[in-house]
């Protein structure tokens, strides 16, 4: 049977998927977690089948097969045509009467604001920024990598650290403690050994992300090269935020700037303090806030927006995830 009201909220990133079935009163009726959502890697049909597993579990747990509204904040929904294709695929599953697909960055933004108004920068494995106003206007970036002008996030930071460490080791670059701290993390004696281990797969590619915390620790220890990389990341975060604020004509208004993602959530003082200082200089009316609540909260709030839910529903939903 279907619910008399309700939202199927989906936050699907590259590494995991969170699903919640939410009543029109904001009550969380059921939740489920599944694997990551990666259409570019596995194809849309396989990705949708993977997504269906936690969705069906959550719907079953809530005692229903359909809801009024599906709000899906999905990784790899970067371009309008991708959103359209994903909307069609979700609609075909018949999980809800209305389907809304957004990039997963919107989930973090909505989780961090009291109304659908503000800007969010997410710095996790990658980096992205979105902004929105209650009238429906949004600010976005393609966010498909260096080809769209992006720089930063955990993977890029690790690669940048490796680049500088390799050049320091063989003499092409200036000295940096990274040439020692990066290989030491894997129990290796130097950069030649780490380069060989990465190239031959003795250290799996998937473990490169482990070098990002090493970079921050090396920067905190005073290494100039490591500090410069972290400061560049802060510059990029603030640049994206200021551009989004400008596009939405919010630069001169008090506006939340939500910061999220694993790199920012780690609360490295050198990065986060620099972000706050640069925002105070370039967007004095911006109000930065770090959000660590589950992004599926944001997907649920967007769903309640679409249902024009009462204020009490928003409070109830936030209470579930922010307690």
Strand content: 15-25%
Shape summary: globular
What's the number of helices?
Answer: 13
Distance from first to last alpha carbon: 31 Å
Structural class: alpha/beta
Number of strands: 10
Give a quick rundown of the structure.
By secondary structure, this protein is of the alpha/beta class.
Explained architecture:
- There is one protein chain.
- This protein is α/β, with parallel strands linked by helices and 323 residues long.
- It has helices at 39-42, 44-61, 80-93, 105-111, 154-170, 178-185, 191-200, 211-220, 224-247, 262-265, 269-282, 296-307, 311-322; strands at 7-12, 16-22, 28-35, 67-74, 96-103, 118-123, 127-132, 138-140, 255-260, 286-290.
- The chain has a 5-stranded mixed sheet, sandwiched between helices. A 5-stranded mixed sheet has the order 8-7-6-9-10, with helices on both faces.
- A hairpin with a 5-residue loop joins β2 and β3 (28-35).
- It starts with 6 loop residues before the first strand and ends with a helix.
């Amino acid at each position: 049977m279907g619910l008399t009201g309700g939202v199927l909220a989906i936050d699907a990133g590259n590494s995991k998927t969170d699903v919640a079935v939410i009543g029109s009163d904001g009550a969380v009726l059921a939740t489920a977690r599944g694997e990551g959502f990666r259409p570019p890697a596995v194809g849309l049909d396989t990705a949708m089948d993977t997504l269906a597993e936690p969705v069906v579990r959550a719907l079953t747990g809530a005692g229903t097969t359909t809801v009024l509204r599906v709000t899906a904040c999905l990784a790899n929904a970067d371009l309008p045509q991708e959103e359209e294709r994903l909307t069609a695929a979700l609609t075909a599953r018949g999980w809800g009467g209305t389907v809304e697909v957004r990039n997963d960055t919107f989930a973090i933004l909505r989780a961090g604001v009291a109304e659908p108004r503000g800007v969010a920068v997410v710095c996790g494995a990658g980096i992205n920024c979105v902004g929105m106003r209650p009238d429906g206007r949004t600010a976005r970036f393609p966010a498909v990598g260096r080809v769209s002008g992006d720089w930063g996030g955990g993977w890029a930071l690790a690669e940048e650290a490796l680049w500088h460490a390799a050049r320091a080791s063989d003499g092409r670059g200036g000295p940096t403690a990274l040439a020692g701290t990066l290989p030491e993390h894997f129990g290796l004696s130097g950069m030649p050994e780490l380069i060989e281990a990465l190239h031959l797969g003795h250290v799996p590619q998937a473990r490169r992300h482990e070098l990002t915390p090493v970079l921050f620790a090396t920067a905190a220890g005073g290494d100039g090269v490591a500090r410069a990389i972290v400061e560049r990341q802060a510059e990029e975060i603030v640049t994206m935020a200021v551009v989004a604020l400008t596009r939405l004509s919010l630069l001169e208004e008090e506006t939340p700037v939500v910061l999220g993602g694993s790199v920012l959530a780690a609360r490295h003082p050198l990065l986060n303090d620099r972000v706050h200082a640069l925002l105070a200089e370039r967007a004095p009316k911006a109000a930065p806030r770090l959000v660590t609540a589950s992004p599926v909260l944001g997907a649920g709030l967007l769903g309640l927006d679409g249902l024009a839910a009462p204020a009490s529903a928003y409070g109830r939903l936030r209470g579930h995830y922010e307690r």
